[in-house]
Design brief:
Blueprint: E1 2-6, E2 21-25, E3 29-36, H1 50-67, E4 75-82, H2 88-98, E5 105-110, E6 120-127
Parallel strand pairs: 4-5
Antiparallel strand pairs: 1-2, 3-6, 4-6
Helix pairs in contact: 1-2
Length: 128
């Protein structure tokens, strides 16, 4: 699979660790369901701490990605859901640490609530 970053000055530049668009060619496409910060063994939130939930959600996402036969570098689109958009910078920093460049395309959505009282959810599309 090859990923080509799309960038144009005719649209706003990315405001974080993501690309305006990604062209993915070849391979297979996998649509991953959203992951929240649940511990797999207990099914309970890892903590009330936002950053802890973000890290666990990405760990859960990575486990599904690996089971699909891919890696985090194969993500072409991410969608982040936050119950508090004031924590956007924190989610950005963790994502930039965990997701390799070139960064995938991404949307971030503020939501009123998430399952089990989670503060963060992430879903992805892979192409590899």
């Amino acid at each position: 699979m090859t990923k080509q970053v799309v960038f144009t000055d005719a649209a706003p530049a990315a405001v974080g660790p993501y690309s305006q668009a990604i062209i993915a060619s070849g391979g297979k496409t996998v649509f991953l369901s959203g992951q929240i910060g649940l511990e797999p063994a207990t099914g309970e939130l890892v903590s009330e701490n936002f950053e802890g939930q973000v890290r666990q959600a990405f760990a859960n996402l990575e486990a599904v990605v690996k089971e699909a036969g891919a890696n985090l570098g194969d993500i072409v689109k991410l969608t982040l859901f936050l119950t508090d958009l004031s924590r956007f910078a924190s989610a950005n920093a963790i994502m930039a640490e965990l997701i390799p460049q070139p960064f995938p395309a991404r949307s971030t959505i503020g939501v009123a609530s998430l399952p089990k009282g989670a503060q963060f959810e992430v879903e992805a599309i892979l192409n590899f």
